Amino acid sequence: MKTNFKFARLSAVILLVEFFPGLRAGAFLVTGSYNVAPSADAFVTTGPDGNLSADNFGGNGSLAVSAGGLPNGQFQSLLRFDLAGAVASLNAQCGVGKWQIFDVTLTLWAVPPGNAIFNNPAGGSINVSLMQNDTWLQGTGTAAAPANSGVSFNNLPAITSPGDPSLGTFSVPGSTSGQSVFTLALTPGITGSLNGGTDLDLRLSAADNSVAYAFASASNPNLYPLLTVNVVPEPGMMTLGALGMSVLFIAGFAKRRRG
Predict the structure, then answer these.
(1) Which of 16, 138, 156, 181 has the least CB density, counted as fewest CB within 10 Å?
(2) What is the longest distance spanned by two Cα atoms in the chain?
(3) What is the pLDDT of residues 52-65, one digit of tens each?
(4) What is the CA angle 200-226-134, rounded to 5?
């Protein structure tokens, strides 16, 4: 009987690891998600020769990231996500305090540039950084009708810092359709904004010398950017769940061995 029990216990562990690989990564244990579109977004650009550096484009239907040195100049994009409702939503799904963050993803949808001020699409890499300064204003300007109020390229030195943490560098295609999903680094800034219900501000900029990527803004009713927070049970609950699964396997194997 003792040998049977040891065999059953070993078998349970093997089955858990081999048939439930998500247990190692935690993916299959995701029990709740919170999705939110930007509450504000805008792109800023230098233009071909700096002529658009003071203009605002916060009301445009698309955003863009382009490397400096391209014919139509450098483009960066800013996105703000309001996380005020995140904790309440996750508590309602999982139980108060019975969850922890598994991952945070940013989903973007490529679109045709739609205006001659943009660079021609080209694949490459972009960097996503967490902005510590959230004082920028979206504005109402568009590519066709820029505005003179709201965030502009000239404002970047005042609202960005070398200390803004990078959340990752990601590849984007040169196409004008399809989605890109980025899994962001779980820095203290992200977890603090989530747990505190404060705004999360992101800056997207070129990470190479060739990228030119246009994607839908929050004003697009179907393809807007989406921040997704996935959570799993807090450690005590995960341990209990894994233990319960192991017990079931052990009991089943022991019963078969006795039979």
Answers:
(1) 181
(2) 83
(3) 999 999 999 999 99
(4) 20
Tell me, what's the pLDDT at 30? 85
Contact 130, 186 (CB under 8 A): no
Q: Angle CA(119)–CA(125)–CA(131) in degrees, nearest 5?
A: 95
CB 97 within 8 A of CB 32: no
**CA distances from residue 249 to 3, 5, 190, 192 in whole angstroms, order as listed:** 16, 11, 38, 39
User: What's the whole-model pTM score?
Assistant: 0.83
Residue 245: exposed, middle, or buried by beta-carbon count in 10 A (0-12, 13-18, 19+)?
middle
**Res 248 pLDDT > 80:** no
